Amino acid sequence: MSNNIYFPPSLQGFEPKRMVFSTWVDHLPFAYDLVAAIRPELIAELGVYNGLSFFTFCQSMVDHDIDGVAYGIDCWEGDEHTDAYDDSIYNEVVEHAREHYRGNTYLLRMFFNEALQHFNDNSLDLLHIDGLHTYEAIQEDFTNWYPKVKPGGIILFHDVMAKIKDFGAWKYFEELEQQYDDVFRFNHGFGLGVMRKEGGAPSDEPLLRLLFSKDEEDIKRLRQFYVHAGHFLEARRQATFWRQSRKGGKKGGQGKADQGKGE
User: Where are the domains of the chain?
Assistant: First the structure.
């Protein structure tokens, strides 16, 4: 374990501009810090739904003056895991993107395979796979989109600890852990898998060094750190909500305790 102190941007004043119900809430500090570390020129997210993870990527790009573009790809119709929903969620996402990220955020309302033609091979710095969570769907999304990621680029897989219904992300990610060297898994929440595509120049960023360290103590402490970071963010959000409520602010919060469906 190195003696260097890791003090990421998420602990230095990160306040999500969008907070809606989603199981992604446990991983927001990491998402924010990852974008700050890799400074992506091009991001693609497969499965945006209500935009919690996507807009965290976008916010980090703005906050850290990153000259990049983020594409959110979704049909916004629902699937067998989220059930069908109306256009209200899509309209909310469009409005938030227009208000906060005009010019560096684009929403593609289409199937993932239809969007492939809009991206060159070896062009994505960050790919987030969070669509239908069956084994077959995850396998198809990874196989089709892997060539679009730059050598050294990062691929995220949500729900890699969710062994419910017919979710298969956990099983597919376990197979990837056996096939590739630079793979990391957060176990808290519903889980988040992180993979670095082979190739590219090595990075000196502390977060990336820790993510793909082979030191068991590094791995253990990084996991513990982001468990606590998620708890800290949620506690701060709850405190802010109650302060606003006591002052007569808007009633009714958004977050993990709300009722609804996650991504």
Answer: 9-246
Alpha-carbon torsion 46, 109, 64, 240, what sign?
negative
Fold type of domain 9-246: Rossmann fold (3.40.50)
Q: Work out the number of other CB atoms within 10 angstroms of the CB of residue 98.
A: 11
pTM: 0.88
- 211 contacts 184 by C-beta, under 8 angstroms: yes
Antiparallel, parallel or unpaired: β 192-196 and 149-158: antiparallel
Q: Return all residues near 48 (Cβ < 8 A) that are at least 6 apart.
A: 54, 72, 73, 74, 76, 93, 107
Q: Do 163 and 191 form a contact (C-beta atoms < 8 A)?
A: no
3-state secondary structure of 87: coil
Handedness of CA 123, 126, 129, 130 (dihedral sign): negative
Q: pLDDT tens string for the chain (263 positions)?
A: 455 678 899 988 888 998 887 889 999 999 999 999 999 999 999 999 999 999 999 999 999 999 999 999 999 986 665 556 678 999 999 999 999 999 899 999 999 999 999 999 999 999 999 999 999 999 999 999 999 999 999 999 999 999 988 899 999 999 999 999 999 999 999 999 999 999 998 888 999 999 999 899 999 999 999 999 988 887 777 776 677 777 764 443 333 344 344 44
Tokens of 196: 């670095």
243/44 Cα distance (integer angstroms): 36
Please, are residues 103 and 155 in contact by the beta-carbon 8 Å criterion?
Answer: no
55, 98 Cβ separation under 8 angstroms? no
